[in-house]
Every structure is written in structure tokens, then in C-alpha cells.
Amino acid sequence: MDFVSIRVITEDVARLAGFYERVTGVRADRANEDFAEIRTATATLAIGSTRTVPLFAPGSARPADNRSVIVEFLVDDVDAAHRDLAGFVDPADFVNEPTTMPWGNRALLLRDPDGNLVNLFTPVTEAARARAARPPRA
Q: Taking every annotated instance into account, which residue ranges of this chain make up the domain VOC (predicted)?
């Protein structure tokens, strides 16, 4: 089994897809007004409208600011990403400044327009770079 995607449910697919396009530099593949995907080389962030939820099971998901999941993106230079996003992201939506974590990643935490946590990180220690470079397990 391979983990390939995470889906975020939102009231406004266009707004959220636009945000993630700007953050990642990846153009969203918009299937229709209710569904878009940000596809990177290693995973996909799917963005679904609340109108798609009943297709799975009515009431099974709802948009909300998430307090338990962080959507993470590996970036070449987290400090440069922070500078680049400074004029785009509301200052109140930056949760922290780029910070080197004990596990060796330099990380920037922010919130997307729906309040979901997003972490942009760059491995800065040998051990962290080695973890990031490991090929996926089968």
C-alpha cells in the first residue's frame, strides 16, 4: 500500500487551491468547481468542496480549522519561502518564524485560508537530510 494523498474539505475550492498554488508554486489541476489537486512528485493534496462529502457519506466530513493535522511541504530554503510569502500571507496567519527543530528540520508553520496548519520545512542537519532522501518503502 502507498500513501499518496490527503484531502481537505472546504467551502471554497478556488480560494484554497489558489493559496496552495502560491505556496507550492504548483498549478492546481481543477477537475471541476468542486475538486482540485496540487500534485507534487511525491504526494497529492486534494481539495474537495463540501458538496462532495455526501458522495462518500452524508455528514462524514466538514470544513473546519484543524487543530490536529499539519500539511507539510519539503522546500529548498524555508527562510526564502518565508520571505516570499510575507506579502501574500496575513502576518496573523504565520504561527512561527522559521525555527530549527530538535529533529533537524528548519520549519515555518502557518495557517491556510481555512485555518488548517501548513508546515514548510528544510532539513538542515545530516540526519534530517538523510531521512528526507530515503527512498519510500514498498
A: 1-123
